[in-house]
Amino acid sequence: MFEAYKTCQPFFLMQTIELLLADRSIIMPKVVETQSKLHQLILVFVIFSGFVKNGNAGKTSSFIRSEWPSIDIPLDNEVFAVPKGHNAPQQVHITQGDYNGKAVIISWVTPDEPGTNEVQYGVSKKKYDFTAEGTVRNYTFYNYKSGYIHQCLVDGLEYETKYYYKIGSGDSSREFWFQTPPKINPDAPYKFGIIGDLGQTYNSLSTLEHYIKSGAQAVLFVGDLAYADRYKYNDVGLRWDSWGRFVERSAAYQPWMWSAGNHEIEYMPYMGEVIPFKSYLNRYPTPHLASKSSSALWYAIRRASAHIIVLSSYSPFEPKENLRLECIHMVKIPIVQCAPWVLGLFTRVSIVKYTPQWEWLREELKRVDREKTPWLIVLVHIPIYNSNEAHFMEGESMRAVFEKWFVRYKVDVVFAGHVHAYERSYRVSNIHYNVSSGDRYPAADESAPVYITVGDGGNQEGLAGRFRDPQPQYSAFREASYGHSTLEIKNRTHAIYHWNRNDDGKKVPIDAFVLHNQYCWAVSTQGKKSEKKKIEEASSDECCWLGFKLLTIFQELQKLFQVTDNISRTPEAISR
């Protein structure tokens, strides 16, 4: 029975147990049957309590997908279609443009000439009462010359309002719309989608189409966008263009919050291209100045009831010419001339601590107001906790420096990509080991975030199917499939999380749990030692939620047992 239980997902298990209560007409008159069912439930509850305490509830999915080819969609496919009309705007996308959600940055590309930088917008379709003026730029990459990249800040917007906007001119103009978020409020509901490592394959298309139907209102993107760096020479730029047209079907209508991955670095000295993140930074702006960040690669925003912090896994320093990296042979090399693998090889705690990103994060965490935005979410590309053979322990330098801050400030969840599979952890931390003493292994920690890897968008590198065996105790669920996630915030106390697998083109919900808010949950349990002790024994919010649900059902069955016991004591029952 224990092994069968371990293979169940929590919400499936709850459905099974609740069937015990499904037909009271049968349960009520049958004392013996009720007692038997009650004993079964007690046994399940005892088993559940045992494995939660020991933290060995992790599951590795045995599902093996019938994988579509991990090859990029041909450029002449309709998903990359160029809009009709001379110099028509294309690759349209929006992101949040300020700290609090009352502005957007609208970006687009005109291929032939600069054209107009103006955005017309208003609250009625075809009626544009306002205008905003943007900027235009372009860049070269090898012999490729980009189109004219327009970026326009539209600010002073009203909360919870649908805006229509128009870009371009004449017959080539195009129209879109977006919805602003609710006012910053601790109980403001909001639904985020989480996507990572998307690429532009048929698997990518499946992920994107499923996400669009999810009802989510904004995307938290955890890095690795176009995978254009898998091409050479002019094809690099062409694949950035095709990806921009590919995601426009969603990104033009709702904000995508960007973070950079390793495939955005594009260090290609054989082509003469040695400036990190050149294409990415030219094409995908972020509101970093609004959060007092010195780089577009790390920043923070507030949206509805959430405070979202975006970190860069590949930014030990800002990429300036005069910054130097001292490598192991004491050779000083300008950082822009260091290959990414060199940066990764020699990255240590000292290259994370005291850097501009470290200084900024230290101050940003102090600015978080959990009374206004109780949900604290972190995005980073490299997973902090990962049990896949792919990229195992690559996040150690960041974990060693930032994890104690995540615990101290009670971060609710950390989303990452990089590993082309799905994995969710329990609430664990490893902040007490200092090389010479302390616990060497991650331990259950009620103040720690849940770590979730969603690097399963569908890119051409394929799935990372080799998980480490045995499954570590910090790992709750893992599966090598493509998909996307959603986080639906209900109020200040809880949110509902889902991971959806792309199963042969169909969206299949696989992993789900209720996420309790770290800050509000801690406040609500102050002074309740018995409840707090129970929470401390749980390895995750999933376990906490399931435990309380089981306890509720147990108490209801206990009442039924008392009723049927009373029935059995009546003269009529005794005579029978």
Walk me through what this model shows.
It is an enzyme of class 3 (hydrolase). Its EC number is 3.1.3.2. The protein has 576 residues and is an alpha+beta fold. The protein has a domain at 78-84 and 185-319 and 351-516: Metallo-dependent phosphatases (Purple Acid Phosphatase, chain A, domain 2), CATH 3.60.21.10. The chain contains 15 helices and 28 strands. Helix 2 runs parallel beside helix 14 and helix 4 (31-54) runs antiparallel to helix 14 (541-568). The chain starts with a helix and ends with a helix. The model is unreliable at 1-35, 42-56, 317-350, 529-545 and 563-576 (pLDDT under 50).
Quick structural summary:
InterPro entries: Calcineurin-like_PHP, FN3_dom, Metallo-depent_PP-like, MPP_PAP, PAPs-like, PAPs_C, PAPs_N, Purple_acid_Pase-like_N. This protein is of the alpha+beta class and about 575 residues long.
Sequence stretches where pLDDT stays below 50 over 5 or more residues: 1-35, 42-56, 317-350, 529-545, 563-576
CATH superfamily of one domain: Metallo-dependent phosphatases
Largest sheet: 8 strands, mixed
CATH class of one domain: Alpha Beta
Q: Into which percentage range does the β-strand content fall? A: 15-25%
The overall pLDDT, averaged over residues, is 81
* Individual helix count: 15
Rounded Rg: 26 Å
Please estimate the helix content: 25-40%
Q: How far is the first residue's CA from the last residue's CA? A: 36 Å
What is the CATH fold-level name of one domain? Answer: Purple Acid Phosphatase, chain A, domain 2
Structural class: alpha+beta
Strand order of the largest sheet: 1-25-21-24-20-19-16-15
Oligomer: single chain
CATH architecture term of one domain: 4-Layer Sandwich
Which shape, going by the Cα principal axes? globular
- Number of DSSP-assigned strands: 28
Family: Belongs to the metallophosphoesterase superfamily. Purple acid phosphatase family.
Keywords: Glycoprotein, Hydrolase, Iron, Metal-binding, Signal, Zinc
Catalytic activity: a phosphate monoester + H2O = an alcohol + phosphate
EC number: 3.1.3.2
